[in-house]
């Protein structure tokens, strides 16, 4: 590191006003001793690790790639995370060489310096490509001294809004394209000779340097720090923040963060930690069962993970395997993994105890700017490989190498062929093609590799392509379509020929082929092409194919919508397909055609529901009215269906604030003569659509003696919805003291919609009575009402609530994310509560940190985590809520001071993607939640109940940043010792084995039966049937396993009927199978445990083994536990067995 | 003076309004002593941060003028400021463009748009002109002189790079329209299609490496062409003489780039500023450092051998 900069940085550190808590003494920074780090590794059986290179040869390596003569090019940055004013940009590219082949670098050369946070490096085209913040550079050494002489800016205009998001993960593809990625905060604008290319937020770029063609291959992911291809040219990515392990990428795939996409795909391993890099293993050095498995780095948990990915319909399923290695060293940060020329696995270790720069200060002195390591993992007792000499190899030999098992050799050989005499190479390729037998089953991979050589040369030709798309292997057909799509213009194919070529493939027997054909047809953009693409539709499509079709429907809508309406497209003959396409558009353009369908008598009940959902979401007042009338004129149907349709229409119209216009005689009839359920549905419609003409009928219901509670509540809500001058007076009759609490609550809630002041008076009376009910739910309603909080505060003046109820109400207010200080003060005064905790001083913080380190007990803290309902928002190993950040390996990345701060002041440092939004609607409604995604027309939030709310942007009056949704004052509601234990627990997560998620596939999310008299009675009456089914008296609530996978039975309610000798617990879980087949489980303990699959009891072997015979889809299982026998934990996990025929997963 | 039609009348008016101390003969001359020259545009302008050719050529040619420069180029940008929007709306991106131009306190603004927009062809022309007029209305409020620079013709480098014949027709179409705009608004205008002509044939001595973007040598040629369009005959300076000056300009440009386009903007000025917003305090810390570098540039410029013009 440059001396003057060190001085400068230190000066800044001394003067800047950064976080008072970021102090050197807060954590123990380990000595950067290589042997310490080496000693801290646990390596997979049969493997060993050695140091390949270390500082001072390299510092903070970020990305690396080998060249064709076995040299390792490394990009690193000491400037990261943020350059200081006047600081030199002095980052370097280093070339490492192992000249004697002993697995240790013995020569290092600085190839280039003066770089500005280089985050990607890729040798090729006679030099090396370097991602340098806003630019992609090509650097060349022209005189052979391994030092740069020429720099060319290849592309520029990449965004830099976050330095760990700037372009990264450069790779050569099997197809000659260069792929690289950008992350969520980046906005790029690139001028090319083909026009400007733009990409907002995360995505993968595909670039052909020779032609300067630059396209976006796939969208999304928070930090797609890993991207690689399998041997069939299918793409996979990992995410440094997404938490879904391996993600399957295809043209047009969009994952979370994708800009302006209302719907995104999910990865293959939900609940995984953050990952950096991805390498699909290959080559003869590794044992056979490792080849093809995918390696990525849990850089927070100091682990190198491995996944086995197998075909599943159009997509894949992925199962975690035992780690390649793990480390207990806090500075071990594996950020890149690459196969080396000798067949060993190389790991770039960024070496840093601090890994964030949003949450932790840019200039935090604990950051390491000097060290870095490359580790090398090899299989014991297996021969290493010798890299071919690509320069000396003949064209024939190079073509031979392209068929080698080592992916890197294939790529280097193709790149070498690209610079050989083109005519000669093409003649050789042609000769090989001529010599191959016509057999569709033979030479499948060879033909594909030959095709990719043509593609690498950018030599479009039908000759090598035709066989590949007609192969008997679906993987070949899928790969061929991808090439055809890139070559459409280069082959000068007419639209008719191209479409004709894809027609059969869109209805191919394999859904992955259909997926590729659909995306290839989308290139054309005409209605006929769309008609062909819809050939791929099936009502039970695989999720990836369905997504590909959904995105295609939307991209091509301008072309096909009018043609469909005119009846010119074949696919509209299938009502399911037609409704699917119309709904996928998700706009009012589809409503006229959906209304026509809804009016026809040919639709099934499900089709009616689907068509109505599309109408309800986008129709005008009149169109909704037409649909409402139609609901009552449907022939041959049951009342429950009519009710479901009406409810769907009402809730959509309410959400959109549309007053439906139409003729409502039939609705009035339903009010008089229908069942209770029909009357409730009709009342909801009356309130929502302000049907004043039906007001007398509503009052009549309210006045009638025999009206059940549920109908009465609905009638009150209907009156409030109508909201005319008499409403308050009528409701006041029911809000007064002489009514029971439930009636009063319902009346106050309804009144709130009409007059907050009147409602507040009544509520204040109710809350301050001697025996007052829990105010939480009403307070929540007051917070939602415009001016409700203020009015309630006024009404509470001078009145006394119980301290307990005041505290309950206070919690509701704090958790709302809105700073309602007036109401908080009023509640505290009314309940005689103390004010919130004052801020921690530096000294107090230091003392608290020390106490966590010396006295904290993580096991006790684990209990508090459960007791405080942390699971409601935070997941451990995928189990729990998604409203707050995943906590699986928080202890491995966050420092103790940060954890304390986050608990005390949730608003201070909020993780990426967890800022709440407060939205005021034009109709006075108020919604708060975490933003899921936003399009030009809709904002989608996830609210505190974890449901997604879609908000039309046109209806939004104002929005503001609401900080964190996490309740403040957590430190307040726990005793200090309990708080210390909780923080200790968090600090151990992902750091020590007892508090880390292993690779086992456990049931982590359970539904457990709540203890109630009704439940006990029903169980006594219906026995097992009561437990294995669903019944309204049985209330099942979520409960979660420990991070290690076991569920503590002490946290599960035990039920004991008076006639039973012992207590029992009842737990449900759901297991998912991609197709029919057998899956193996183990259950521990065995004694005192019964397992039911659906309603059938399943045999548990003496060793706890179970074989489930599963049908495709989700299966409910119930565990009955005798609590007198089982005292400890229960563990259910999926295991591999010789009898397993399907890769099942738990719905965690 | 070919290619430059700066309106003397407007310049005179501004002269009396603001009372600038002008050197003689300056009325009809675009570059004046003491000018703060602000460059606005897309990739062509942005790349001068890396190459420093325009600035070095101007500075060494007008060594007695005490010129200073602020380069506000942004790759892929349009007259709507689209590349500056980042997380915000296009409208906010546009507002940022105006704010950036104002903060640079220009005396003379060289505006180069149309390189990106011309790919939209004839159909995009009206939208381009609407946006350009709005932009120029807003830049007028800064009371600086304005010169419009036309887009640049794409070279034909042969397969596998695209044949630019069709695109170049559009570049000429946009250039013509920009010329009219400049005339109507009494601005200066540099027609780069005239200065750097390109035929439909294969370009024999390319100035670019991809048809569109200049090599370093090409950038010197382009800078000389720009000067010529402004009415000044120059040639590539002797690099032995201007080497230090060139290096000093590059360093100043790097510092200014890091000041106005800081990395990690999300955390400094964006929606996560509550986390690292304290580092916004570093932005003004660049001012004295840049001022120091500009002093150095002035010293190097004054020390250049030969006589001042």
Describe, in plain words, how this protein is organized in 3D.
The complex is a heterodimer of chains A (1148) and B (309). By secondary structure, chain A is of the alpha+beta class. In chain A, a hairpin with a 5-residue loop joins strand 11 (168-172) and strand 12 (178-182). Chain B is α/β, with parallel strands linked by helices. The model of chain B is unreliable at 1-28 (pLDDT under 50). The chains are: A alpha+beta (1148), B alpha/beta (309). Chains A and B meet through strand 10, strand 13 and strand 14 of A and helix 2, helix 9, helix 10 and helix 11 of B.
Tell me the distance between the termini of chain B: 17 Å
Largest pleated sheet of chain B: 5 strands, parallel
Low-confidence stretches of chain B: 1-28
Which structural class do the helices and strands of chain B define?
alpha/beta
SS field, number of helical segments of chain B: 12
Summarize the structure.
The complex is a heterodimer of chains A (1148) and B (309). With 1148 residues, chain A is an alpha+beta fold. In chain A, 34% of the residues lie in helices and 23% in strands.
């Amino acid at each position: 590191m440059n001396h003057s900069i060190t001085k400068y940085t230190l000066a800044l550190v001394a003067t800047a006003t950064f976080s008072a808590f970021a102090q050197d003494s807060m954590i123990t920074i380990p000595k950067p001793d290589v042997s310490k780090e080496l000693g801290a590794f646990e390596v997979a059986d049969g493997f060993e690790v050695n140091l390949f290179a270390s500082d001072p040869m390299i510092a903070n390596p970020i990305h690396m790639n080998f060249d064709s003569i076995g040299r390792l090019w490394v990009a690193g940055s000491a400037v990261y995370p943020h350059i200081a004013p006047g600081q030199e940009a002095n980052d370097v590219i280093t070339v490492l060489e192992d000249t004697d082949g002993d697995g240790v670098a013995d020569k290092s050369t600085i190839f280039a310096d003066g770089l500005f946070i280089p985050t990607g490096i890729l040798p090729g085209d006679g030099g090396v490509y370097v991602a340098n913040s806003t630019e992609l550079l090509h650097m060349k050494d022209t005189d052979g001294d391994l030092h740069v002489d020429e720099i060319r800016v290849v592309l520029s205009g990449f965004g830099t809004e976050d330095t760990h998001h700037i372009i990264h993960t450069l790779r050569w593809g099997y197809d000659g394209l260069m792929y690289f990625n950008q992350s969520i905060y980046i906005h790029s604008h690139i001028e090319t000779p083909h026009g400007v290319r733009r990409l907002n937020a995360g995505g993968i770029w595909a670039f052909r340097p020779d032609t300067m063609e630059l396209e976006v291959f796939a969208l999304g992911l928070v930090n797609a720090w890993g991207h690689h291809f399998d041997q069939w040219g299918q793409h996979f990515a990992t995410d440094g923040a997404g938490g879904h392990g391996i993600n399957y990428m295809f043209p047009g795939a969009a994952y979370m963060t994708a800009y302006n996409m209302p719907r995104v795909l999910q990865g293959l391993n939900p609940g995984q930690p953050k990952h950096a890099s991805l390498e699909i293993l290959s080559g003869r050095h590794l044992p056979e069962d490792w080849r093809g498995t995918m390696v990525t780095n849990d850089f927070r948990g100091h682990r190198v993970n491995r996944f086995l990915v197998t075909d599943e319909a159009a997509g894949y399923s992925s199962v975690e395997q035992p780690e390649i290695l793990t480390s207990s060293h806090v500075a071990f940060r594996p950020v890149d993994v690459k196969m080396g020329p000798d067949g060993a696995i190389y790991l770039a270790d960024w070496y840093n105890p601090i890994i964030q720069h949003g949450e932790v200060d840019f200039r935090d002195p604990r950051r390491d700017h000097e060290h870095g390591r490359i580790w090398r993992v090899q299989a014991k007792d297996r021969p290493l490989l010798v890299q071919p000499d690509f320069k000396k190899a003949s064209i024939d030999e190079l073509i031979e190498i392209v068929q080698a098992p080592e992916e890197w050799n294939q790529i280097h050989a193709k790149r070498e062929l690209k610079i050989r005499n083109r005519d000669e190479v093409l003649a050789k390729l042609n000769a090989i093609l001529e010599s191959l037998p016509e057999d569709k089953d033979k030479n499948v991979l060879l033909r594909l590799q030959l095709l990719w050589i043509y593609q690498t040369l950018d030599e479009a030709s039908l000759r090598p392509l035709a066989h590949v798309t007609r192969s008997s292997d679906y993987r070949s057909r899928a790969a061929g379509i991808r090439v055809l799509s890139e070559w459409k213009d280069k082959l000068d194919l007419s639209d008719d020929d191209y479409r004709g070529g894809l027609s059969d493939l869109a209805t191919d027997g394999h859904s992955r082929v259909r997926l590729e054909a659909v995306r290839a047809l989308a290139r054309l953009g005409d209605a006929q092409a769309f008609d062909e693409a819809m050939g791929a539709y099936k009502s039970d499509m695989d999720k990836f194919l369905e997504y590909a079709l959904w995105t295609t429907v939307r991209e091509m809508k301008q072309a096909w919508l009018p043609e469909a309406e005119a009846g010119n497209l074949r696919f509209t003959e299938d009502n399911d397909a037609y409704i699917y396409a119309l709904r996928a558009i998700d706009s009012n353009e589809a409503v006229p055609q959906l209304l026509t369908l809804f009016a026809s008598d040919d639709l099934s009940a499900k089709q009616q529901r689907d068509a109505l959902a599309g109408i309800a979401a986008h129709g005008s007042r009149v169109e909704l009215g037409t649909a409402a009338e139609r609901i009552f004129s449907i022939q041959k149907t049951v009342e429950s269906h009519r009710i479901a349709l009406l409810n769907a229409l009402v809730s959509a119209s309410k959400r959109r604030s549309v007053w439906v216009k139409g003729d409502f005689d039939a609705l009035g009839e339903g009010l008089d003569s229908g069942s209770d359920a029909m009357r409730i549905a009709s009342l909801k419609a009356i309130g929502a659509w302000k049907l004043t003409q039906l007001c007398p009928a509503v009052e009549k219901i309210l006045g009638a003696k025999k009206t059940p509670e549920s109908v009465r509540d609905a009638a009150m809500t209907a009156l409030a919805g109508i909201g005319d001058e008499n409403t308050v007076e009528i409701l006041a009759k029911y809000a007064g003291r002489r009514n029971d609490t439930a009636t009063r609550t319902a009346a106050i809630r309804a009144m709130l919609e009409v007059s907050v002041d009147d409602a507040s008076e009544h509520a204040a009376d109710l809350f301050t009575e001697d025996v007052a009910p829990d105010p939480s739910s009403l307070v929540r309603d007051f917070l939602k009402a415009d001016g409700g909080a203020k009015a309630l505060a006024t009404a509470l003046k001078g009145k006394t609530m119980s301290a307990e109820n005041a505290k309950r109400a206070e919690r509701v207010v704090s958790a709302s994310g809105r700073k309602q200080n007036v109401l908080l003060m009023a509640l505290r005064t009314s309940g005689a509560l103390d004010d919130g905790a004052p801020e921690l001083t530096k000294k107090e913080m230091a003392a608290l940190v020390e106490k966590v380190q010396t006295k904290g007990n993580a096991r006790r803290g684990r209990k508090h985590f459960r007791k405080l309902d942390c699971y409601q928002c935070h997941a451990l190993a995928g189990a729990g809520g998604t409203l707050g950040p995943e906590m699986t390996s928080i202890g491995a990345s966050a420092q103790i001071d940060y954890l304390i701060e986050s608990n005390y002041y949730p608003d201070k440092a909020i993780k990426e993607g967890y800022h709440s939004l407060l939205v005021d609607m034009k109709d006075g409604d108020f919604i708060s939640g975490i933003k899921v995604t936003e399009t030009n027309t809709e904002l989608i939030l996830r609210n505190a109940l974890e449901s997604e709310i879609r908000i039309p942007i046109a209806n939004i009056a104002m929005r503001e940043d609401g900080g964190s949704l996490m309740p403040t004052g957590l430190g307040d509601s726990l005793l200090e010792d309990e708080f210390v234990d909780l923080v200790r627990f968090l600090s151990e997560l992902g750091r020590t084995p007892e508090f880390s998620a292993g690779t086992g596939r456990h049931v982590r999310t359970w539904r457990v039966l709540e203890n109630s008299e009704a439940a006990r009675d029903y169980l006594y009456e219906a026995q097992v049937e009561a437990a294995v089914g669903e019944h309204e008296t049985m209330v099942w609530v979520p409960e979660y396993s420990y991070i290690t996978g076991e569920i503590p039975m002490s946290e599960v309610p035990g039920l004991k009927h008076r006639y039973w000798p012992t207590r029992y617990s009842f737990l449900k879980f759901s297991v998912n199978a991609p197709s029919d087949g057998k899956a193996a489980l183990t259950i521990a303990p065995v004694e005192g445990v019964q397992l039911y699959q659906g309603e059938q009891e399943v045999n548990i072997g003496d060793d706890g083994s179970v074989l489930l015979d599963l049908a495709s889809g989700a299966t409910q299982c119930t565990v009955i536990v005798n609590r007198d026998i089982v005292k400890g934990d229960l563990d259910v996990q999926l295991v591999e067995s010789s009898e397993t025929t399907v890769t099942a997963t738990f719905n965690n | 003076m070919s290619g430059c039609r700066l309106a003397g009348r407007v310049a005179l008016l501004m002269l009396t309004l603001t009372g600038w101390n002008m050197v003689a003969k300056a009325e009809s001359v675009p570059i004046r002593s003491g000018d703060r020259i602000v460059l606005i545009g897309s990739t062509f302008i942005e790349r001068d941060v890396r190459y420093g050719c325009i600035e070095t050529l101007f500075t060494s040619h007008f060594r007695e003028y005490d010129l200073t420069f602020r380069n506000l180029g942004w790759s892929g940008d349009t007259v709507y400021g689209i590349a500056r929007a980042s997380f915000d709306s296009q409208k906010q991106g546009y507002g940022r463009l105006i704010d950036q131009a104002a903060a640079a306190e220009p005396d003379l603004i060289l505006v180069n748009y149309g390189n990106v927009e011309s790919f939209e062809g004839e159909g995009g022309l009206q939208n381009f002109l609407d946006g350009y007029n709005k932009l120029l209305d807003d830049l007028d409020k800064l009371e600086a002189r304005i010169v419009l620079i036309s887009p640049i013709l794409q070279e034909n480098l042969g397969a596998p790079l695209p044949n630019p014949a069709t695109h170049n027709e559009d570049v000429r179409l946009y250039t013509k329209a920009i010329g009219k705009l400049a005339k109507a608004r009494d601005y200066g205008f540099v027609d780069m299609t005239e200065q750097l002509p390109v035929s439909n044939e294969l370009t024999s001595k390319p100035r670019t490496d991809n048809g569109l973007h200049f090599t370093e040598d090409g950038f010197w040629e382009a800078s000389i062409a720009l000067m010529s369009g402004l009415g000044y005959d120059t040639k590539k300076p002797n690099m032995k003489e201007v080497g230090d000056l060139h290096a000093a300009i590059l360093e100043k440009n790097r510092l200014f780039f890091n000041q106005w386009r800081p990395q990690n903007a999300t955390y400094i000025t964006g929606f996560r500023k509550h986390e690292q917003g304290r580092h916004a305090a570093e932005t003004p810390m660049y001012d004295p450092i840049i001022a120091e570098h500009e002093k150095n540039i002035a010293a190097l410029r004054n020390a250049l051998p030969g006589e001042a013009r």
